[in-house]
TrEMBL record:
Residues 1-29 are annotated as: Disordered. SUPFAM superfamilies: Porins. Gene3D superfamilies: Immunoglobulins. Residues 1-17 have a biased composition (Polar residues). This is TonB-dependent receptor. InterPro entries: Ig-like_fold (IPR013783). It comes from the Bacteria.
């Protein structure tokens, strides 16, 4: 069909291949012997055969129209011409002079729709259709057995359905987003630009396949859907009494959950390892660690060394055994020779992103010492967690349950841990020796991604837990949301400097849908290397009696205990908690905690904390919530969510539905503060080299300040009215304050809070909120006006522009402006910011994206995405709160996050990502913060791609300064990496790598500010290495590297040094059982008169395929005039190396699969093919 620009359809249309609707009897051909109409139609006359005026539950309709054969018609829906792409079909009846035309699946809007058809200048014919807003539902479940082995390969099928309010499958296609707490979905992702995994539900049904991971655990799966081209009304969401405001345009998503279980994989046993025995001159092991080669304190003589390493995994009865051992180094030792908890790849572990394949690495045996052992089985108790005992690195997951807050402990530790189920009783115990000092820091972000300096240097690698906490701006201690972040996907950390750089900017504020102004805080807990750890340890345990372990109906009673001996400081925590479901959506949670802590300021301190929460539905239209929580001033726990010591808060909320679009809300809340606030920071002492309170002397808790003794009683009530797609609400709030120390928080104030939400278009929502005080302005809740626009730029993503004015109170005349990308909060099962983005595959995967972290991106074209953000705070938000004063500080230690202030200034970021194909990917982001307390510029950029099929290139640049408050004097830290890799996919005989790196101020720390300006450093590193194997006998390897370092200690003093490395190796195989190798190495630093030379030659004989005997000679010398002078050593050595293929009693031995028997083939004599043998080439041809 041809459609004109005005929407008119010409009479010389071609016929589509779509069949006409069976409701219309039209025969083929131009001559219709059975006329459809008994009379001819005039040129300006139109007849609509279908649909008829009425109500429908479908969001599309088929339109059948008859008009004169010489006329043109125009079709409009809601006064807009229909689109040209709508399928149509025409039937011509020359005898009657009539055209019958059908349009298929014309989209309709919600509510009333007006379809008009006109011919020429005739009067339009109108049909009215009302689309009934049906409430859709989604369900999801596993097919068959919900348990699958945790082997990293097995899959489980998931199916789901989308139905309307009548329980019928919907007819429209829908895009379903799937996310899982563990494992990965396999198959084709229907929209790779979205977070999660997408499948299409056709005619209401969809299926997916989830591949298991390697850890036995329960896995929660979520399915969310948004109709293609439509928005759904979600059953229950608009009636949710906890959310009196309508959802933003892209939050109208349907969701459902299910649970599966990855069970322990009792795999066939496997074992691998090596045992090395060496006799030779002491300190001359050239092939070993360089730090042990030619040590100055080595004595002359012969050394006998026996070293071994092994890994084994396999079934032992009904248990799975996993173990690893290395006699020469810790299992977690990384490429820099450093040991950490939970070894995982960071940039130092992947020096060459451009080299490698699409394989992945899983660390199965994390341990900071030389041993890892784990025995595990699937519990005999249905639905229970696995039984296991282990020695190695672990997290304290069992001691941080959903019912725990004050007794919760989230730590990364090393040592013993066990978990066992005795019927419904679950027992967990752990022991960790030699723990380091434990620190908790809270940092106020500045709107950029970093660098954020911790209060300590020399952080124990892998021990950190990083969170983003959100709380009300004037209610310190009430955490609204807490997100756990993951190293790698969400941030990178420099353990020596104690710095964190996030993958995305961290805003200071956030406007939630309830109208509250929220502030974000970065909370980091970690271990740091103390001066003398001494005999330190942790003992802990938990007893949990599970009343029910059914999905979404879990309930338990439990008690926990934690004791930590830190030498001069001890800490003890114990308590009890319970969780019981109440009805379909409610629950009861209770908790008691008691702590004993040795304070640096108050000595031995004890305290208690209580928590009780009750929420649920009363009937079908009332939702209620009651709560009580109290924390003694002396209570302490730095390994859990932030709280304010010395605070009690209790209250209740009740929301009831008065009609289909009307609800009423009432609430009561009382807060009592009776603790000691942190002492105000003296900024002049912070950077005074001779002050005991400078940044060199950070404690584990804040110094006590002034007392607080006040209370706040809040009574509120309001009504909410939904008007079409918009809403209007009015609420009255009365706040009565009592201050028993001063008059700052004294008085009573009434306030009207009005909210308006108006949809401008289907994707654009206008929001307004006004808080108007009737009497004197409340000290912490002044008159405020907030205006905002929500723009649905993509499914699951909204771009929000908001501005808030303050007037009165302690905040004075202030304003906050924000432009940010709001993601669907439940897009993933975990709460990390970017962990839904995979960084795997060849060339380092999405390396630019991984380095820059454009997770909140907006796709403007295929392969092109942008990321935007803006925030402006007019003045510093300082001064008093009910919990104590707020002031500017680099970090708040311990549980003193309530003292963090908001700094003035503006911050913005612009990011772009371009990935036209798998062979090229690039991304860049610019961030800038300016304010009265300092400036910070963050630049991150990265690109990776194939120049030719054999040549791959990588470039990465990073620049940032300090993002902490008051640390504005630090110089920028810059890092540039450029890499080239050559690897011919068709000929692997030659491979080469070229690397250049530039580092500026890589070691700058806040303590640098104590020594004044002029301190800085620059490093240039260039290296080239190549390997060449012309045939199976010869192999040549060479490497050359140089580093230039410049250090500026003052404006008139600078020092530059060069370090060189040259390494060459040649290997020749005399046969399949003998080889000969020669290698030499030279390291020199001319400016320090340092030279080191070493070489070795060795010949080896494979006595068996697993046993090699080596005989060689090694020699080395060191010329170090500044320290030890000249020294050298050398001598012959004998080496015996055994490859380990099995352990005790054949455990781990890989049995050869016997040849499979083949069915006999009977052929006719004439079909027999003669066989000839070529004796020269030892091949058989047919």
């Amino acid at each position: 069909s041809q459609v004109t620009e005005s929407g008119k359809i010409s009479d010389n249309n071609s016929v589509t291949n779509e069949p006409l609707l069976p409701a219309v009897n039209i025969s083929e051909g131009k001559n219709n012997s059975t006329p459809i109409a008994g009379i001819n139609l005039a040129p300006d006359e139109v007849r609509i055969l279908s649909p008829q005026t009425g109500t429908t539950g479908e969001k599309t309709t088929n339109l059948i129209v008859q008009y004169n054969i010489n006329s043109q018609v125009e079709v409009k829906v809601n006064n807009k011409s229909i689109e040209a792409g709508i399928p149509t079909q025409i039937q011509r009846d020359e005898q009657q002079g009539i055209i019958t035309q059908v349009w298929y699946n014309i989209p309709l809007g919600k509510g009333d729709n007006r379809i008009s058809v006109s011919a020429g200048n005739g009067t339009p014919v109108i049909v009215g259709l009302k689309v009934k807003q049906t409430a859709n539902q989604i369900s999801i479940k596993p097919l068959g057995d919900p348990r699958v082995t945790a082997d990293g390969r097995s899959t489980i099928n998931i199916e789901g359905e989308i139905t309307n309010e009548n329980g019928e499958l919907i007819k429209e296609d829908a895009l379903v987003t799937l996310t899982a707490a563990a494992g990965k979905f396999v198959g084709a992702d229907e929209d790779e630009d979205r977070l999660g995994f997408q499948v299409i539900a056709r005619e209401g049904k969809f299926t997916a396949k989830l591949q298991s991971g390697l850890e036995a655990q329960k896995v929660r799966i979520r399915a969310a859907v948004e109709m293609m081209g439509e928005r759904l009304e979600v059953r229950g969401e608009s009636e949710n009494p906890n959310n009196p405001n309508p959802k933003s345009p892209l939050q109208e998503s349907l969701e459902a959950f299910t649970q599966i279980e990855f069970v322990t994989y009792l795999r066939p046993s496997i074992a691998t390892g090596v045992i090395d025995f060496r006799i030779g001159a002491r300190g001359t092991n050239f092939w070993g660690s360089r730090r042990d080669f030619l040590l100055p304190d080595n004595e002359d003589g012969t050394a006998v060394d026996l070293r071994g390493s092994a890994f084994a995994q396999g079934r032992v009865g009904e248990w799975l055994f996993t173990g690893a051992y290395n006699s020469s180094r810790p299992l977690n030792e990384n490429c820099n020779g450093e040991t950490q908890l939970f070894q995982s790849p960071q940039f130092c572990d992947q020096q060459y992103y451009t080299y490698g394949d699409s394989s992945t690495v899983d660390y199965l045996t994390p341990s900071k010492d030389s041993v890892y052992i784990r025995l595990e089985r699937t519990s005999r108790v249905e639905g229970a967690e696995p039984d296991y005992i282990m020695w190695g690195d672990y997290n304290t997951t069992e001691l941080a349950r959903g019912s725990q807050e004050f007794t919760a402990t989230s730590r990364a530790l090393h040592g013993f841990k066990g978990n066992y189920n005795l019927g419904n009783l679950q027992v967990t115990a752990l022991y960790s020796p030699d723990v380091q000092g434990f620190q908790r820091d809270a940092i106020a972000p500045d709107g950029t991604s970093g660098y954020y300096f911790l209060s300590r240097r020399i952080v124990f690698a892998g021990s950190e837990n990083v969170y983003l906490e959100t709380e009300e701006i004037n209610r310190p201690g009430t955490v609204i949301e807490r997100k756990a972040l993951s190293r790698g996907p969400d941030y990178e950390i420099d353990y020596d400097r104690g710095t964190i750089l996030f993958r995305k900017p961290i805003r200071q504020t956030e406007f939630d849908l309830f109208g509250n102004t929220l502030v974000r805080k970065i909370v980091v807990t970690y271990q740091y290397e103390g001066n003398d750890t001494g005999d330190t340890n942790i003992y802990a345990g938990r007893l949990q009696y599970n009343l029910s372990q059914k999905f979404d109906r879990e309930s338990w009673l439990a008690s926990s205990y934690w004791r930590e001996d830190q030498g001069n400081q001890n800490f003890e925590l114990y308590g009890a908690d319970f969780l019981v479901p109440l009805g379909k959506n409610g629950r009861i949670v209770g908790e008691y905690a008691h702590s004993t802590n040795e304070s640096a300021f108050a000595g031995l301190v004890t305290g208690e904390a209580y928590r009780f929460e009750l929420n649920g539905n009363i009937g079908s239209s009332i939702n209620g919530r009651a709560y009580y929580r109290s924390v003694d001033e002396g209570f302490a726990n730095n390994a859990t969510t932030s709280f304010t010591p010395g605070q009690t808060r209790y209250g209740a909320n009740l929301i009831t539905k008065l009609g289909e679009n009307t609800s009423f809300q009432a609430g009561f809340d009382r807060e009592i503060n009776f603790g000691t606030a942190p002492q105000l920071l003296n900024q002049s002492e912070l950077f005074d080299l001779f002050s005991p309170n400078n940044i060199f002397n950070t404690g584990v808790e804040a110094k006590p300040g002034s007392r607080v003794d006040n209370s706040l009683t809040t009574i509120r009530g309001g009504i909410f009215q939904k008007i079409g797609a918009g809403s209007l609400s009015l609420e009255y709030v009365n706040r009565a304050r009592q201050d028993r120390i001063g008059d700052t928080f004294e008085g009573s104030n009434g306030q009207f809070v009005s909210r308006l939400n108006v949809p401008i278009t289907q994707s654009l929502m206008f929001r307004a909120q006004n808080e108007l005080g009737l009497d004197n302005s409340d000290a912490l809740n002044p008159n405020r006006t907030t205006l905002g626009l929500d723009w649905a730029v993509a499914p699951g993503m909204t771009l929000r522009l908001a501005h808030q004015f303050f007037d009165g109170g302690l905040l004075g005349e202030n304003a906050i402006t924000s432009l940010d990308t709001i993601m669907e909060r439940r897009i993933g099962e975990n709460t990390s910011l970017t962990s839904r983005y995979s960084i795997v595959g060849a060339n380092g995967g999405m390396i630019g994206q991984g380095a820059v972290g454009l997770n909140h991106h907006w796709q403007i074209a295929k392969g092109l995405r942008v990321d935007l953000g803006y925030e402006r705070i007019l003045h510093n938000i300082l001064g008093e709160t009910a919990a104590g004063p707020r002031f500017l500080q680099p970090y708040a230690v311990g549980q003193s996050a309530s003292s963090l202030a908001l700094a003035d200034g503006e911050s913005y970021n612009v990011g772009i990502e371009y990935s036209p194909s798998q062979n090229f990917q690039a991304s860049a982001r610019f961030e800038r913060h300016t304010g009265g307390n300092g400036n910070n510029t963050v630049i991150t950029a990265g690109a990776a791609g194939k120049i030719t099929p054999a040549l791959t290139a990588l470039v990465r640049f990073q620049q940032a300064s300090s993002a902490n408050q008051l640390l504005e004097g630090l110089e920028d830290t810059q890092n540039l990496k450029v890499g080239l890799a050559y690897r011919d996919p068709f000929n692997d005989s030659f491979n080469a790598l070229l690397r250049y790196e530039y580092r500026k101020n890589p070691s700058a720390i806040p303590q640098t500010l104590l020594f004044g300006s002029g301190t800085g450093s620059n490093d240039h590193v260039l290296s080239f290495e190549a390997i060449y194997a012309p045939d199976w006998r010869w192999e040549f390897y060479g490497k050359y590297a140089m580093r230039q370092s410049t250090t500026d200690l003052a404006q008139n003093f600078s020092n530059t040094s060069m370090v060189y490395l040259t390494q060459l190796r040649a290997r020749y195989r005399l046969g399949y059982r003998m080889d000969l190798a020669l290698e030499g190495r030279w390291i020199g630093q001319p400016s320090a008169d340092f030279h080191e030379t070493g070489f070795a030659v060795e010949s080896g004989l494979y006595i068996t395929p697993d046993l090699r005997l080596g005989l060689g000679y090694s020699f080395g010398s060191v010329d170090d005039e500044d320290f030890t002078g000249y020294r050298s050593n050398g001598g012959w050595y004998l080496n015996l190396t055994l490859k380990v293929n099995e352990l005790w009693n054949g455990f781990g031995r890989q049995r050869v699969t016997p040849p499979q028997q083949r069915e006999a083939e009977v052929k006719a004599v004439g079909e027999t093919i003669p066989t000839t043998t070529n004796t020269d080439t030892n091949t058989v041809s047919r």
